[in-house]
Amino acid sequence: MSIHITKTEQETEQLGSRLARQLPDGAVVAMYGDLGAGKTAFVRGMARGMGIDCRVSSPTFTIVNEYLGPRELIHFDMYRLSGADELFEIGWEDYLNRGAVCAVEWSENVQDAFFGDEISVTIEKLDDTTRRITIEGAELC
After folding, report:
1. Which of 24, 42, 84, 88 has the most other CB atoms within 10 Å of its CB?
2. Distance of CA 90 to CAs 59, 110, 124, Å?
3. How far is CA 127 from CA 2, 26, 59, 93, 95, in A?
């Protein structure tokens, strides 16, 4: 487990970029944090770290956004789902089998969909701009 303090949205993105550069294809990143904590900013950084050059936004209404580049990132937002069953109904296993990196916001809503090998990222708001980011399951170099 590693704990990081970021003081700006840009620093949160940079941390996401650092993590993504060392993730293997097929990794699942389960993200936890309150509304506005910085989960999407972290995913923006992940995309940049994977060499993906496109606009990254929260898939709150679409549930899934796919970003293609040298590597593939699939960005899920589980805020509107009531459980893992709904995630499986939209093809969760098919997404996992593609070998893309999967970043899952609001993972607490679909906890039963994880197999225990996911990387956990918890983002806590300490004040308007400062975040405590705890990463479990991966060590940053």
Report:
1. 42
2. 14, 13, 29
3. 20, 34, 25, 37, 35
Number of domains in the chain: 1
pLDDT of residue 87: 83
Residue 141: inside a domain = no
Name 125's Cβ contacts closer than 8 Å, sequence gap at least 6. Answer: 33, 34, 36, 37, 38, 131
pLDDT tens digits, one per residue of 32-50: 999 989 999 999 999 999 9
Contact 122, 133 (CB under 8 A): yes
- Report the relative pairing of strands 2-6 and 72-77 from DSSP bridges: unpaired
In a domain, 17, yes or no: yes
The position carrying tokens 């994880």 is 114
